[in-house]
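Hi Y.,

Following your request, here is the sequence exactly as I used it, all 260 residues.
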Amino acid sequence: MAGTAGSTDISQVHAMQVGETATVNVDGHPERTDSPEFLHAKTAARKIIATLQDLFQGQGEYQMHHGGSLWLHDARGWFLVLNEAGIEWSSQFCADPTKIERLRQNAERLYAGFPDSEKQLTALGYPDTGLLHAPVTDATGVAKWTDSIFNSCVPLNQAFHIGFAKSGTIGEHNDPKPVTDIQHFKVDSFQLIVMDAATGAHAAVVPVGPPGSGRSEVQVVHTSEGHPLASQLAAAQTADQRLILPADHPIAEAAFARQT
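Below is the corresponding structure, written out as tokens. Let me know if you'd prefer a different format.
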């Protein structure tokens, strides 16, 4: 976790030149060397983003998340969908090429339905569209696909990418995606993340009823390590049950505090 003794703080963006050929700039990840494919992908993605307004993933200085990005183009312009799975850079080293090939085939089928997309990528100067049609058979192919624009360029600001709950936002690398996704579509007045002052851990909660139902209980959907409710949540999940907190529980009160 960030801030612990001896840990590597990944909340900062590293950017430095190494010799004459390699650039270390991983948009908030621990230092590693960007591949040519990732540099090409980021350049093209930023050109695409420059044509868009009000991205669903939030505003800010965008970092590129290896989340299965599939950028498509139609008569209305660019839009983003996600593949069945995203391949994080570090996870490529345990990837089965045959399974990554299935992701490539899925992407190829989707792009066939939006034939203008490849042409538009080429027009942006993206040189690696051929990867969309190149079967993945080995680790080299996995690496190229992982860092291509067909996987590596889900735009997130730093908080949504690698943020910690103490900053008010949870990042894709620190909480499970079903939880981090909620912050993109919830009403602004609901407090998804509630910090525990004693431990510094956090709980993610959601309402148990729709707006106007009059219900103010909350369901705990996630806790970070060390949270007082962590064991209760684990027990409830093991029993295939929900962990519901009553309306007068401090976490429920905090979650609804901004609602009128």
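The longest strand covers residues 69-74.

Thanks again,
Q.
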